[in-house]
Structures are given as structure tokens and as C-alpha cells.
Amino acid sequence: MPKSEAPRERTQAQARRFGFRDLGFFRHWSFGIGNSIPFAVLLLLAAGGCAHMSSKPAVGAEQEIRAVLDAQVRAWNAGDLRGFMEGYARSDRTRFQSGGEVSLGWQTVFDRYQKRYGDRASMGLLKFSEVEVTVFAPDAALAVGRWRLERAQDGPSGLFTLLFRRGSAGWRIVHDHTSAAEKVAAVGKTEATR
Hints:
The chain is of the alpha+beta class. The protein folds into 2 domains: about 5-50, no CATH class; about 55-190, Nuclear Transport Factor 2, Chain: A. It has helices at about 5-15, 35-50, 55-75, 80-85, 105-115, 120-125, and strands at about 95-100, 100-105, 125-135, 140-150, 155-165, 170-180, 180-185, 190. The strands form 2 sheets. Strands 2-1-6-5-4-3 form a 6-stranded mixed sheet, with helices on one face. The radius of gyration is 28 Å and the shape is elongated.
């Protein structure tokens, strides 16, 4: 056999070993009884997996997460910080990040909110907008959006990214990264509002 044909023969032998009859433009899968059964099992597993990946649970989870966020807004606007905090997981690992600071633990996050928003005037009215929820797994999801406080003296706003986990209490925030938009000060410098 000439040297130029050896690689071709080798390639054809490999193709036959993996069930291909021809290496031309169209490749034909060899459907002998030995290859059909594993292929059928693979097809059934794939179909079963696709049925399991139904969007219905994701839609239900998204609605539940949006309900948690809506309950937080209602509690905030009623001046109920403890009710607002019901959206967070009661865990020592619950994490809140904002303005270069990290608060770790449900109680620490609650204390932070009480310090910053201790009276009704400083709380103002909270609005969430442009909320998008992505469900990653039956017990994990991400929510992103914009927040805005309407207060007599100002209107701070910004973005949030929330990691939700589903536990025995339902969907709860385990990680909150909130940023404030910068506002232009009277002297032309920018300063963070939060």
C-alpha cells in the first residue's frame, strides 16, 4: 500500500469502529442490532431529560420569587423593616454587599437597615423596576433589577443583584449586592448616594 493511502485507510478503519460506513460528504450511521439498542436508550434518556427540564417549575419559581420581592416592597412602604427582612434567609451566612461594605448574617443585615433607615422619612417609598428572574435549579435563582427610594429630600436609586435559594421557608435571599447610582453634586463632582 502506498504511503499516501495509509492515513486514509487508518481513518476509514476508525470510522468503521465508531459505526460510520463511509467518510464521504454524507456519513451513514450503521444501524445494526448492536448499535440500535444503545442509540434507543440514549434517545429515551434524552427525551426523558427534556421532559424533566420543563419550564413550568421555572415559571412557578419565578412567580414565587417575584411575590417575595413584592412583599418586601409592601413591608418597606408600610415602614416595616422586620417584614422587609422576611425576604432574607435567616442564616449567619446571609450576605449583603453595598458601598464597599459587607454585612454577614441576617441579624447584621437587619441592624444595618435599622441604622440607615431607622425612621419613616429616611425609608421613603421603595420601588423596584426592570426586575428579571433567572432560575438556575429547583433551589437556586438570580434576580436583578433597579431600586428607587422616593423621599422628600432626595431620590436615591441603583441596581441590585439577588441570589435566591429555596429552603424550608420558601425562596429567600442569601446574597444581596446592591449598588447606588452616582448623582452629580452642585459643585460638579460625583458622589455616591448610598
